[in-house]
Design a protein that fits this description.
The complex is a heterodimer of chains A (108) and B (111). With 108 residues, chain A is an all-beta fold. Chain A has strands at 4-7, 10-14, 19-25, 29-37, 43-49, 52-56, 59-64, 69-74, 83-91, 95-98, 102-107. With 111 residues, chain B is mainly β. In chain B, strands 2, 4, 5, 6, 9, 10 and 11 form a seven-stranded mixed beta sheet that branches. In chain B, strands 1-3-8-7 form a four-stranded antiparallel beta sheet, with no helix packed on it. Chain B is globular and about 35 Å long. Classes of the chains: A mainly beta (108), B mainly beta (111). The A-B interface holds A 31, 33, 35, 40-45, 48, 86, 88, 90, 93-101 and B 33, 35, 37, 42-45, 48, 55-56, 58, 88, 90, 92, 97-102, 104-105, 107.
Chain lengths: 108, 111
């Protein structure tokens, strides 16, 4: 069983749509990251969360520690948002566990 | 400011050989962590170094090792390469284990 489960695995949206990607985890964590990976491999850390909600531009990330769940929202999606989004948790003790990623395609 | 630099970008090695990958963190960052990404297993944590000490290690065999130098640059070594070691190897640096910045990765192909 994976410690981190993401859904959906694949997502296709029309430009302008509101997008939600979900992440559930089963271990005690000290923090959760949302990562973005574009074709070619480069990874960008979008958010690090240990509680509550963070917003950066059109991206919003929330975490519910009691329910062991986090969501990444993209408002007014754009084709440049097309990428793989990966949820990663830092288990207490600094061990990283990764979700399998959500492949997002935004169609103009 | 300069980002995280990984060298080389691409590498082809023969089964049984060994390989050393390098990661130069953002200036001032003392934590460097390494990850392996394959199509089958996704991203997996290899190890983390902080101030020249290995702070955490993932579930990889002893053929995978690393070290960190006094200037925080880190190297990762894989000995006795196997075909399954073909992967994208990523490193990330952070100030103290918060807010990670990733390098572009080294794509290793073992033939």
């Amino acid at each position: 069983k994976n410690e981190v489960e993401q859904s959906p695995q694949n997502l296709t949206a029309q430009e302008g749509e509101f997008i939600t990607i979900n992440c559930s985890y089963s271990v005690g964590i000290s923090a959760l990251h949302w990562l973005q990976q574009h074709p070619g491999g480069g990874i960008v850390s979008l958010f690090m969360l240990s509680s509550g909600k963070k917003k950066h531009g059109r991206l919003i990330a929330t975490i519910n520690i009691q329910e062991k769940h986090s969501s990444l929202h993209i408002t007014a999606s754009h084709p440049r948002d097309s990428a793989v989004y990966i949820c990663a948790v830092i288990k207490t003790g600094n061990q990283f566990y990764f979700g399998t990623g959500t492949s997002l395609t935004v169609i103009p | 400011k300069a980002g995280v630099t990984q060298t080389p970008r691409y590498l082809i090695k023969t089964r049984g050989q060994q390989v050393t990958l390098s990661c130069s963190p953002i200036s001032g960052h003392r934590s460097v962590s390494w990850y392996q990404q394959t199509p089958g297993q996704g991203l997996q944590f290899l190890f983390e170094y902080f101030s020249e000490t290995q702070r955490n290690k993932g579930n990889f065999p002893g053929r995978f090792s690393g070290r960190q130098f006094s200037n925080s640059r880190s190297e990762m070594n894989v000995s006795t390469l196997e075909l399954g070691d073909s992967a994208l190897y990523l490193c990330a640096s952070s100030l103290q284990g918060d807010g990670y910045t990733f390098g572009s990765g080294t794509r290793l192909t073992v033939v």
